[in-house]
Design goal:
Chain B: Residues 7-31 form the UPF0033 domain. The complex is a heterodimer. By secondary structure, chain A is of the alpha/beta class. Helix content of chain A is 27%, strand content 25%. The N and C termini of chain A lie far apart (44 Å). Chain B is of the alpha+beta class. Chain B is built from two helices and four strands; from the N terminus they run βαβαββ. The longest helix of chain B is centred in the N-terminal third of the chain and has 12 residues, at 16-27. The chains are: A alpha/beta, B alpha+beta.
């Protein structure tokens, strides 16, 4: 059989539809251990391409003949070479390679409808499977609001066009440290208002509209509410949103199976009290039937069957470990002393989101390589 | 530093810089040095990992205006 080309969208279908796949990742061991394509039913073999230059015969016994095999590398060149070598060595294998490699995987967004809202409204979650980022679009009768849009701005603007809606409001729940925001560019391109919490924006070098507690915008004729709720802790400005009275967009404060980390702006000790207060007081005062929609997922198990990342607040209050640490000192210790490594280039990424540096597309891609790491479990 | 062989892999994308370097390495004797010029950023991680796997030694590594230079001694 010949080698076929798969796009990141093809791989996303395999993840969301819970299908099996055998991934032969030919990047370095370090790169593979740090970050790979995650799927519920995926098996992996990691052999760097440069160990296969003399032939692939040695690894043939480890390659299954009854599964789709996807060869993956950083960009795509090495995966094509290895896939073709395998195809020559065993013509019965079902071989493909990932077009654009891990770079393209990092940048792929899958839009999934979370719910129909009041009137004819709709709520979409854009799942960035390769990086774990989640962005949101609220649509109602010709108007749209965007929350935590990532930098692939044309995905959102073409989606809005397809849905025949005008993007009116663009929000960032906080100044992101793990990925580059697309919010400001989208607002510039569409004439929408760009909101950022002013407490996170002290160093930004562009104009924005302050996102304050209690600010509410209404969308479309049925006036779907998008309301801001100040919820500091991941950053001092972090703000949540309640959409249509039913959905709680928590930004990087509360995730499905973890909670936000307070250290990415260098002030963990100062902000841990705010984080505690948001998670144990502010959120506990809200209706338990709210559906939590976070700005990230960390592991593939956090995806629901339809590919969305969403869970009832009441269930999280009962099950999420980070919401159930009685002892304040223990909580403080967990979110300040036992933190995972920081996201790749997080300080530079903050600078980009403040408008202080303007890297080109390739440099932005490099900065965002790797998992998001915004949570503590 | 004096090299026994020079590989110009500027402008080439992965996997070609390593493929060419491997060929050059196969053609020199143990203890001889191959000098590589490469522009693909992936080389920064790949050359050390590849050299390490083969037991070769990176004697020197530098960057000048986007061109990475490696001197690798054959095992």
């Amino acid at each position: 059989m010949t080698v076929t080309k798969w796009t990141a969208a093809d791989v996303a279908r395999k993840v969301i539809e819970n299908q099996s796949l055998f991934i032969l990742d030919v990047r370095n061991a370090d790169a593979f251990q740090d970050w790979k394509i995650e799927g519920h039913q995926f098996d992996y073999l990691n052999i760097p391409y440069f160990e296969l230059l003399d032939g692939v015969e040695g690894i043939l016994p480890q390659i299954p003949s009854d599964k789709d095999i996807l060869v993956v590398c950083a960009k795509e060149g090495s995966s094509i070479m290895v896939a073709e070598m395998l195809s020559e060595a065993d013509t019965t294998l079902s071989l493909s390679y990932l077009e654009g490699g891990m770079k393209s995987w990092s940048g792929y967004l899958e839009p999934i409808k979370v719910a129909d809202l009041s009137g004819n409204g709709e709520l979409y979650q854009f799942v960035r499977l390769g990086k774990g980022c989640l962005s949101y679009m609220v649509i109602s009768e010709g108007e749209a609001a965007l929350i935590d849009a990532v930098r692939f701005t044309e995905v959102f603007t073409s989606f809005a066009q397809e849905k025949n809606v005008t993007i009116k409001h663009v929000f960032d729940t906080h100044l992101h440290a793990d990925h580059i925001s697309g919010g400001r560019s989208i607002a510039e391109a569409t004439g929408a208002t760009y909101y950022l919490p002013s407490k996170d924006a002290e160093e930004v070098v562009f104009d924005y509209t302050p996102l304050e507690d209690g600010l509410t915008v209404q969308l479309g004729a049925s006036n779907i509410d998008v309301g801001a709720l100040y919820s500091p802790g991941h950053t001092i400005g972090s703000t949540s949103f309640v959409v249509d009275g039913k959905y709680l967009l928590t930004g990087d404060i509360l995730f499905i199976d973890s909670i936000g980390r307070p250290d990415l702006a260098g002030l963990a000790d100062d902000w841990v009290g705010d984080l505690r207060d948001t998670l144990y007081r502010r959120y506990r005062g809200l209706a338990e039937d709210l559906i939590v929609l976070p700005a990230h997922f960390m592991i593939i198990d956090e995806l629901n069957e339809d590919g969305t990342v969403a869970k009832r607040l009441g269930d999280l209050l009962a099950d999420n470990h980070g919401l159930n640490i009685e002892d304040e000192r223990e909580f403080r210790s967990i979110v300040t002393d036992h933190l995972p490594p920081q996201p790749n280039a997080y300080q530079q990424i903050r600078q980009v989101n403040m408008g202080k540096i303007t890297p080109d597309y390739d440099e932005q891609t490099e900065m965002e390589i790797g998992p998001n790491r915004c949570a503590v479990r | 530093m004096k090299a026994d062989k020079v590989v110009d892999a500027k402008g080439l994308a992965c996997p070609m810089p390593i493929v060419r370097t491997k060929k050059a390495m196969d053609s020199v004797a143990s203890g001889e040095v191959v000098e590589i010029h490469v522009t693909d950023k992936g080389a920064l991680a790949d050359f050390p990992a590849w050299a390490n796997a083969g037991g070769h030694t990176i004697l020197e590594q530098s960057e000048d205006a986007g061109v990475f230079k490696f001197y690798i001694k054959k095992a």
